[in-house]
Amino acid sequence: MDFSDLLIDAGREMFAPTTAAFALAAIGLNFHFGMTGLLNMGHAGFMLLGMYGYAITIREIDANDGMFLGIEMAAGAQIALGVLVAILVAIAFGLLLGWPTLKLRGDYLAIVTIAAAEMVRFVGRSQSLKSLTGASTGIRGKDYKRPFESLSPFPDRQIELGPFTLHGSQSTSWWLVLVAWSAVFLAALLFWRLARSPWGRVLKGIREDEDAVRSLGKNVYAYKMQALVLGGVIGALGGVLWSFGNSVAPDSMGRPTTFWIWTLLLLGGAATVFGPILGSILFWTSLLVVRALANGLIPDTVLHPTELEPFSLVLVGVTLMLLVIFRPQGILGDRRELAINDR
Amino acid sequence: MTVRTALDTRALVRAGVILVVTALAFTLYSAWSAAQPDAADRTFTVAEASTGFVPMTDDGAPADDAVDDPALIDDGDEIAAPVASSRATNQLAQSIVNGLAFGLLLALASVGLSLIYGTTGLSNFAHGEQVSLGALLTYFFATQEMVSLPLLPWEFNFGFPLVLSAILAVILAAGFGWLQDRFLWKPLRKRRVGITQQMIVSIGLALALVNLLQWWIGGRKVRLSIAIDKRHQVGPFQIGNQTLISMAIAIACILAVSAFLLYTRLGRATRAVSDNPSLAAASGIKVDGIVRLVWVLAAALAAVGGILLALYEQGSSFDAGSRMLLLMFAAVTLGGLGQPFGALVGSIVIGLVSEVSTVWLPPDLKYASALGILILVLLFRPQGILGRAERVG
Predict the structure, then answer these.
(1) pLDDT bracket for residue B54 (50, 70, 90)
(2) Hey, which residues 333-352 in chain B have their CB within 8 Å of chain A?
C-alpha cells in the first residue's frame, strides 16, 4: 500500500465538503445539546428535511422553466428560495417536535426525536410520494444542483492545488469547499456570539438547572423551543450542503447518521465553539485512515473488503461508548461545564 | 407496590375503552373507504401488506403467502367490486389478526425493555440488537449452509434442529445479557455515571453491535426454517401454523413473566426495586442482584421475541431488531415508561395500529403511523395509557 496516497486522501478528507456539512450539522446539535442540554436523537431528520426542502423547490422551479409565481428567477434567487424553504421546513419540524416533548423529561425528547426522524425517512422513501420525493432512490443530483453550480466563479474543469485535485464547480468541487467552510465559519461565529449573549446564558442555565432558571421567571419552555428550532435550522442547512456533494437519498440519513454526529460532537467537545469542527475533521479523517489501513494490512481472508464498512462502524460505536464513559467533555471541552446530567 | 397498583382497574378500563374506540374508528373508516371509488387500488396494497412482510429487502420472499388470496392477482378491474363481500378473507379482520400476532411478539421484546427501564432508569437503545441476536443465533445453529465467525477463517455448520437451536440461542442471548450487566452496566452504575450518559453509551453499543452482526451474518436476509407454512382459513381471516404456534409461545411467556412478577418473592422484589430502588435496598433487597436478573430475563425474552418474529416474518436480518427498536420504545412509552403491563398493552396497540393502518395507508407507511400514534399519545397522555399521573417534566 502507498502511504503518500493515503496521506493525500486523508488531507483531502480534512477539508472535504462532507466534513464541513457534518461540522455544520454538529454545530446545530451543539445548540441543542451543548448549550441547552436537549437530547436530540433525530438530527438526521432535520438534515433530510432540509435537503428535501431545497431539492424539491429547485426541481419544481426548474420544471416550471425557471418561473416562480410568474416571476423569472435568477440562479441566486432560486437558491435563496430553496434555502428559505429548507429553513421553514426545519422550523416547522422543530416546533412540531418540541410541542409535546419539551415539557417532559429528557429521555422522552430522545425517543420522540428519533421516532420523528425515522418517520420522515419512512415517508420520504414511501412509494406513495414517489412523484415528490423519488421514494427510496431519492432525487438525482442533476435535478437540483444546477443553480448552485452555475454561480461558481471557478473554471469548469479539474483544478490542481498542491497535491489535491478537485473539479472547479461540479459536485464535490472547490466551489462547494469554499461555500461549505464559509457556512461553517459563520455558524461557529454565531454560536460564539450567542453563547456569550444573555440569551445563551439563559440556555446554559437551563442546561445546568432548569428549576433555578424557572424560579428566576424565565419561560424555560420557550427558550428550549428557540434552541431546538435554531439548532434544527442549522442542521437542515448542513443537510443542504451535504446534498450538494452527494444526492438526496433518504436511507443515507437514517439513525446511524445521527449517531455519527453525536460521536463527532462528543469527540471534539460539546459546548465549545471549535469542538464540532475539530470533531468532524478528526472523525472523517480517522475513519478514512482506519479503513485504508485495515484494507491494506489485514489479509482478505480475515477481513473481506465488504466487511470493512461494518468493521469501521463497530469502531465508531465503541469510540462513542468510550468517549461518553471516560471523557464526556471530548478533546476541547471543560468537564465542569459539561456534566451530562439526568434530565 | 402491590398487585392492585400494578394492575389498576381504572387503567385497564381506560385501555379497554381506547382499544374499543380505535377499533370502532377503524371499522367505520374502512367501511367508508370501501365505499369510495378508489377502493380498487387500495385493496391491492392491503393484500400485499397482509402477508406480514416488512417492506424491506424481501429477496428470499417465499411464494406461499396469500397466493390463494384473489386480491394478489394483478389486475385492478376485477377487484373493484365491494371489498368486504366479494371474498371470504376480510381485510380488516385479517389485519386485526396480524396486528394481534405482531403486537404479542413485540410485547415479548418490549416487556424486557420496560423492566430494564423500571429497575435502572436506562432507556436501553441496544435492546433491538438483543432481538436480532436471538434470531441470528438460531439461524447460526439451525442452518444447513456454511457459516463462520468474524475474523476466523474457518467455515462450519451445525445444522441442529430448529427447536434445539432456538433454546441454545435463548440461553446464549441470556448469557450475553448477564455479561453486559456484569462488565458494562454494573461498573457504570458503580462509577455513578449519569442515566443520560448511560443512554448514549447504549446508543454506541447499539451501533457497534448492529455492525458486528452485519459483519458476522452479512447484509442478506436469512430464514430460520425452510418449511412451508400451512395457512388455515378461520372465519373471515387466514392464519398460518407457525403464526399460531408463535402466538401461543408468546402468550405462554408473557403469562409466565406476569406470574413471576405478581406472585413470587423475587418478582415482588423486582417490582419493589422498580418502584423505589433506595427504599428496596433499605428493606433488605439486593438491588444489584435484581438488576442482574432483570437483564438476563430481558435479554432472554428479547431473544424469544426475535426468534418468533423471524418465523412470523419468514426471515430475519442483522437489522431486524434495530428496525423494531423504535416500535418497542413507542409501545413502552405508550403503556407508561417502566410499567411491564403497560408495555404489553402498548405493544398490542402498536401492533394493531401498524397492521390496521395498512387498510387505508400504503403498507410502507405502517411503521410511520405507529410512530405517529406515539407522538399523539405523548401530547395528550404523557404518562402513557397505564402510567400513573405524575409530573414527568
Answers:
(1) very low
(2) 333, 337
